[in-house]
Amino acid sequence: MSEVAEQVVLVERRDRVLVLTLNRPAARNAIDLAMARALAAALDGLDEDPSLSAGVITGAPPGFSAGMDLKAFSAGELPVVPGRGFGGIVDRGSRKPLIAAVEGFALGGGFEVVLACDLVVAARDSRFALPEVKRGLIAAFGGLVRLPRRIPEAIATEIALTGEPISAPRLHELGLVNRLVEAGQALTAALELARVIAANSPIAVRTSKEALTRQRAWTAKAECAEQQLLWERVIASPDAREGAAAFAEKRAPRWQTG
């Protein structure tokens, strides 16, 4: 990874979890092309490392991310990475679970990065918004599509059309935020959640995520067959045999990595 990439996205391994920190604090972690490329490279590393089971994405203080770097955009730069999309994540995240740990704010493209994650941990005083309409833009990098899938459509419509912020406690009530914590505790809580996931069978976790993602496109007629194919993949794995053996022998399982 380049020196620039290391500066704008900090990468830290915590056991089987990879922590990725958006690190442009002077720009409120606004996403430019360098950050998008760095995040994409870090996600490539997460996918390719069989000893890693999950990722956590957070932001350096003062918050998660203020969204797309409008200064860079006005100069003609678009923070889109081929194959991964805006921010290096919104079109294709990771095959492994991703948890957003939000402090302060997640605005515009920053909110869309959160929506590209599988789970969300947020500080009580954090706020979220899609303010693109206030700048003559639209939340076209996942916000207008993913948000109505995660919360009631009427609330998602209000967020998108007004551009006004919504609080983390309200999003927790609506089911978007999985865990609501005190200020300063989002990363700690996200790591705790990630470690619970990482303790499980890697192939079972990865295949469960795949099913949860792909099921949106399955027809009612096809869903049983699609699930059966995934089931056959997992049941034939060494982890399936190890899980049963560990249960019978009353010991902790020893999963294969990958």
Please characterize this protein's 3D structure:
The structure is a single chain. With 258 residues, the protein is of the alpha/beta class. It folds into two domains: 3-198, 2-enoyl-CoA Hydratase, Chain A, domain 1 (Alpha-Beta Complex); 202-249, Lyase 2-enoyl-coa Hydratase, Chain  A, domain 2, CATH 1.10.12. It has helices spanning 3-8, 33-48, 70-74, 109-115, 143-150, 153-162, 168-174, 186-198, 202-214, 223-235, 238-249; strands at residues 9-14, 17-22, 54-59, 80-81, 85-86, 98-102, 105-107, 119-123, 127-129, 166-167, 179-181. It has a six-stranded mixed β-sheet, sandwiched between helices. A hairpin with a 3-residue loop joins strand 4 and strand 5. Helix 5 runs antiparallel to helix 6 (153-162) and helix 9 (202-214) runs antiparallel to helix 10 (223-235). It starts with a helix and ends in a 9-residue tail after the last helix. Mean pLDDT is 92; it is low at 1-5.
What attributes does this structure have?
six-stranded mixed β-sheet; 258 residues; 2 domains; 2-enoyl-CoA Hydratase, Chain A, domain 1; alpha/beta; 11 strands; 43% helix; globular; Lyase 2-enoyl-coa Hydratase, Chain  A, domain 2
- Per CATH, the architecture of the largest domain is Alpha-Beta Complex
Radius of gyration: 19 Å
Structural class: alpha/beta
Strand order of the largest sheet: 1-2-3-6-8-11
How far apart are the first and last residues' alpha carbons, in Å?
22 Å
The major β-sheet equals: 6 strands, mixed
Question: What is the average of the pLDDT values?
Answer: 92
